[in-house]
Write a structure and sequence with these properties.
With about 325 residues, the chain is mainly alpha-helical. It has 13 helices and two strands; from the N terminus they run αββαααααααααααα. A two-stranded antiparallel ribbon has the order 1-2. It starts with a helix and ends in a 5-residue tail after the last helix.
């Protein structure tokens, strides 16, 4: 793993590449990939989508170059799957693919990554390998989609991904995460920072599915590597807000017998804007919550103590519940 200076340099380069490609591609996206507002949208004016092309390109380029420099292997299956799932997302941004087609292609990409991992990469060794890998694939497909579902406000994905990847970078520097995952987290952190000037309210461009889907894949793989490294609690703490908001919303819609695969505006963060929160307030609170979760995750890993880990998990759950409760209630006038 490179030093902190090299890591900061990688973050800076990834940010610059991401910002440059986003700036260059905006006119084309404005012409061919315009997201027009509808009843379920959070934006009110037509806005180009597809800047995820820049974020993913910057992430892969910087990560692969850095990996070659320090002689670290990033799994080829992950790189290929990331490109394929980005292409699936881009096609969906342009022509809107059928749900089943999207799910099959996403499952194929996640399966390619999971089933090519070494056999000794385990979370619960007592469970048969095939069963564990199958469950991981299901979780991976859900994680890829929930990142997409949660990408519904300006800077929302930035508020989620930057604290998580920064924590992963820090754990990599401490030696608590595989070098390949730490490199990808470093590059993704920088690429997302380069996207900030274009996505801050009111956004000039959106990530689109071409960005949110592969971001979900890359981030999910980094978290899986953390779990494989013996830190499943930290791997749950880091994305806890996204996991809670999206999963609770899914089960609530199923319980109400709603067609849960349809677009909607019932996530907690969306309800918050309907309840009087501004977009900036929502993303600021999500960012602050994720900083708390990142701190708890790092503390749980570095302490190496089961009592500390249990306390961190309960504290993280309480923090997430507090924010979800705030978002679900009308703001006092």
């Amino acid at each position: 793993m490179p030093t902190i200076v090299a890591s900061l340099l990688a973050v800076t380069i990834a940010a610059l590449i991401s910002a440059l490609i986003t700036w260059i591609s905006r006119p084309l996206l404005q012409r061919y990939a315009l997201a027009r507002p509808n009843a379920r949208s959070s934006h009110r004016i037509p806005t180009p989508q597809g800047a995820g092309i820049a974020v993913i390109a910057a992430t892969l380029v910087v990560a692969l170059v850095l990996a070659a420099w320090i002689n670290v292997a990033i799994p080829p299956a992950l790189v290929i799957a990331t490109v394929v799932i980005a292409l699936v997302g881009f096609a969906d941004d342009i022509v809107s693919l059928p749900v089943l087609v999207r799910l099959v292609l996403q499952a194929a990409c996640v399966s390619a990554v999971v089933f090519t991992a070494p056999d000794d990469a385990r979370i619960v060794p007592a469970v048969p390998l095939a069963l564990e890998r199958g469950l991981i694939v299901l979780a991976g497909v859900w994680f890829v989609n929930l990142v997409n579902f949660m990408d519904g406000l300006d800077l929302m994905t930035v508020a989620e991904v930057v604290p998580v990847t920064a924590a992963l970078l820090l754990l990599g520097l401490f030696g608590d995460l595989s070098p390949s995952a730490a490199l990808l987290a470093t590059a993704l952190c920088g690429a997302m920072l380069g996207f900030v000037p274009f996505n801050k309210p009111v956004a000039k461009v959106f990530l689109g599915d071409v960005g949110s889907l592969p971001i979900g894949l890359l981030l999910g793989w980094c978290l899986l590597e953390l779990a494989w490294h013996g830190q499943p609690a930290a791997a749950l703490l880091l994305p806890a807000y996204y996991l809670a908001d999206s999963t609770i919303t899914l089960f609530r819609r199923i319980a109400r017998r709603e067609p849960f695969w349809w677009a909607h505006r019932t996530h907690f963060y969306q309800r918050a804007t309907d309840n009087g929160f501004t977009v900036k307030q929502v993303t600021a609170e999500v960012f602050a919550l994720n900083l708390v979760l990142a701190l708890l995750a790092v503390v749980s890993v570095r302490a190496g103590s089961m009592p500390v880990t249990i306390v961190s998990l309960f504290a993280g759950a309480a923090a997430v519940a507090f924010v979800l409760r705030r978002f679900a209630r009308p703001q006092a006038s």
